[in-house]
Specification:
Elements: H1 2-49, H2 65-74, H3 86-102, H4 121-142, H5 146-177, H6 182-187, H7 199-212, H8 224-227, H9 237-262, H10 280-301, H11 307-336
Helix pairs in contact: 1-2, 1-9, 1-10, 2-9, 3-4, 3-9, 4-5, 5-7, 5-11, 7-9, 9-10
Length: 342
Amino acid sequence: MEFTVIYHQLLTYATDMAMIAVKSLLLIIPLIVGIAYLTYAERRVIGLMQMRKGPNVTGWFGLLQPIADALKLMHKENIVPTLANKYLFILAPVITFTLSIAAWAVIPFDYGWVFADINVGILYLFAVSSLSVYGIIIAGWASNSRYAFLGALRSAAQMISYEVSIGLVIISVLLCVGSLNLTKIVEAQKTVWFAIPLLPMFIIHFISALAETNRNPFDLPEAESELVAGYHVEYSSLSFALFFLGEYANMILQSAIGTVLFLGGWLPPFDIAPFNMIPGVVWFVLKICVLLFVFLWVRATLPRYRYDQLMRLGWKIFLPFTLVWVVFSAGFLMFMGWLPKI
């Protein structure tokens, strides 16, 4: 009897683990394919904006270029500098890539299409994105290189500075919803997307996302003209590929967070036919693509900020503005009696 109970418990456990593994693969494989073709899209979009062709030789319209790049990186030698801390040097890109994937566990693609629909989803996202700075700072320190260390310090200061503003932006959304659950945040936007009443917060969130992902015009941690490539200057082969994948996965993640918080997640722009006949996941992916296009557009058009300008924008403009906005929003919602009932 006891053996039968233990057998059924083990079978249930194995089934659950298999389901988790299948769900993980269904999430990770499309994400990695999306990252690969985001690099292709970036080169094509920037090429067109600069009136040149971009990758167009490998495969039809250059569509096999990401695969060729991946094969090239896999066949290169993984070099570890002589004076580097070998274990931390190898661990750093793994941390960065793992955290960029782990954050996707709470992102809802459609109603009920979420890996873990937890009640503190937004806190989980905030915690995971905060931890990603450790991969970069470890890489800078373990490389035993001045360029890498300076790039890591820049990145850490930059990410911490803009996380304060992002935290206040998220609080302004929470005041309107009254829940930390990402599905409920999307459902609260059935009448109007938060990008309309909270437009300044949406813009600040997007600019802060550029800083969080070290993208132009805030790519100071990797500034080629000053730091060669910053914190990953000593990396090659698959180690470099993991940093590369992590950076682009974070771009897609920040676009997904912006979609959930401000653009109605999987909801159509108008709840009428034919808009509401299109599956929610299609709307979700389209909104992410629009935000990613703006990422690429900004890279192609804006010059790099100086470091003092970057810090001044974060601490002297975004932080006071978002703080005042949170106080104003809370007072307005209380005065109008629109505070959500918990």
